[in-house]
Amino acid sequence: MEEASQSAEIESSCDVSITIQNGRASKEQKILTVSPQLLEGMAEISQLAKTEKSCHLSIAIQNDRTSIKQKLSLPWTMPEQKILRVPHQLLEVFKRNMPGLRVDRTYDANSMEHVNHIVHLLHSNWHPSDKAMNEYRVKPKDENWTYIRSATELREAGIKFEMVETEGKDERCLFDIKFEKGILEMPKLTIEDDTESLYRNLIACEQFDHRHPKFLAQYVRLMDSLINSGKDVELLCKSGVIDNWLGNDESVAVLFNRLGDHVGFSKEKFFYAQLFKDVNKHYKTPWNAWKANLRHKYFNTPWALISFLAATLLLLLTVLQTSFTILPHQS
Asked: Transmembrane ranges (predicted)?
């Protein structure tokens, strides 16, 4: 190929014919060219060859004095792993900002034709785990749900926030959120300078095509419900759910409050519908709020617990002493 290209460079004008040939057919294209135009011709003819699994490219450069032919295999007949390296590397780059992003999927030439752009590639590999999806499918769809309270309000009702890892034995995605026994389990989310722009592009990808699942838009709606102020962000940071690299809790609150603006999704297909109903049921139970209030006011430190136990013991001893004092008089 290099020999043919160099021969074309020394001629100001020469006939170049490019032929793609396999067992069934032959396609030829002729151009009048020098080296840069030869490369353009190559790009043009390679579109014709893309449908063939195995074919050969013959380049013939002819003028009045010389004729050179070079035969070589097309680049897409190279081993498959060299073609698939690019999408895998792209996914690895974004994995930090997209917890649970699948990077193990393989792509061949045919599957890559269905990928429209980089954002589409990222979105198609970022979805809830198979376990979470199976649980979602078996649950009856219900649109009679309401939004949950903020993180600080839920804490007053005794709900705890717990960070879970996205990697390990039970792999999870950012969207895999569970509520069980008063504990809201959430994977850690790292907030950086480019998080907002990345998420806006991914949400736009979801909104552009109704066939795309809207997991990120629904996750943002959940976070928007949990976060109303910097105090909510502070609570989630202390719980390990948010890793704030912006440095300002209020900035994170503003980010989530505006990310969900003008973003729509089907209320009937809301991924967190059952979770919202379970959280609201716990929040509205008076006993849970009473226990949480007692714990926060009187048992929030070890010394408070010791004082309560000492006071209880003293009260018990006083009752016993009074009882033994009264009993002899009655006798």
From this structure: 303-327
